[in-house]
Amino acid sequence: MRVLVTGAAGLCGTHLVDELVRDKEISKVYGIDNLSRGFPRKEEFVIGEQWQGKFELIVKKYQDLSVREINNLDVDVVVHLAAYNSAREAMETPDEYFVNNDYGTMKLLQKLFHTKKNPFFIFASAAEIYGKPVKEPVSESSAPTAMNIFAATKLAGENYCSVFFNWYNYPLAVIRLSKVYGENQNLVGYTSVVGNFICRALRDDPLIIYGCGGQTRDFIYAGDVAKAITGIIKARKKVCGQVINIASGKVISIEELARNIIDLSGAKSEIIKLPPVKGDYPGYLLDISKACELLNWSASTPLDVGLKRTINWHRQVMNLGI
Length: 322
Hints:
Elements: E1 2-6, H1 11-21, E2 28-32, H2 42-46, E3 55-58, H3 67-73, E4 77-80, H4 87-92, H5 94-113, E5 120-126, H6 149-168, E6 172-177, E7 179-181, H7 193-201, E8 207-210, E9 216-217, E10 219-221, H8 222-234, H9 236-239, E11 243-246, E12 252-253, H10 254-265, E13 271-274, H11 289-295, H12 303-318
Parallel strand pairs: 1-2, 1-4, 2-3, 4-5, 5-6, 6-11, 7-10, 8-13
Antiparallel strand pairs: 9-12
Helix pairs in contact: 1-8, 5-6, 7-10, 7-12, 10-12
Protein name: NAD-dependent epimerase/dehydratase
Family: Belongs to the NAD(P)-dependent epimerase/dehydratase family.
Pfam families: Epimerase (PF01370)
């Protein structure tokens, strides 16, 4: 089996590639990434020797892939992870998010439709599309309500998938990811709350919380996401046309997360609370029963274990504490 991963040098992408190259059922893994985001000296950390021979990186925008190029790769599965993913940045640069996330996904689907093989397509959406759900735990049948441009672009991508599946019978599945963290996460520009807290903690800088800190999030380790996607690849006939939540199934408050990171990193940082930012939400618990049933999967990495790994990686990249 041959697999193409967009956004292969990103957080989820690197963990997925690492999972796939170790799988005996996968003969070749192609990654495409323009390396525009991430962290300094990205290539040195993500293109490991253990991948050589079975993995090939194509350095370009995924939107620039042609039908001929995809045909030449002869892949059986395309996992679409490439995306800009900051809600705050999306509100400041909506045009960029539309072009990269929304328009780019539609163009990729169009090209895949015109390939000889029509590889199975896995679209990585986000739990943010649920907005403010009225019932918890939030299942895949909950009505989506995009609260920001990022969520809107992901919801648009889901709608394109729905059209291609229902109109053209194109084989695909959609996954809705909770907050993913882990090694190789973005350190440049708009970073995740986990990345921001760790970077500040390793410098003993204050950890800034907007609002009371009681808002909750479901954090899932990128390695667990990679295992879930690998499960979808292997069960693609079974899950064709499905939308599946991929999450830990547990929530933690932002303040508790901050305190955990301070403790695990040995930082001397204090916590400072500022007024809440527009568009924030109290949080919600995702229902992962569908993933458990269809994939025989559940997240196996405890938060403290995943955070320790991520903190150690941050130390290496930032050249702190070593």
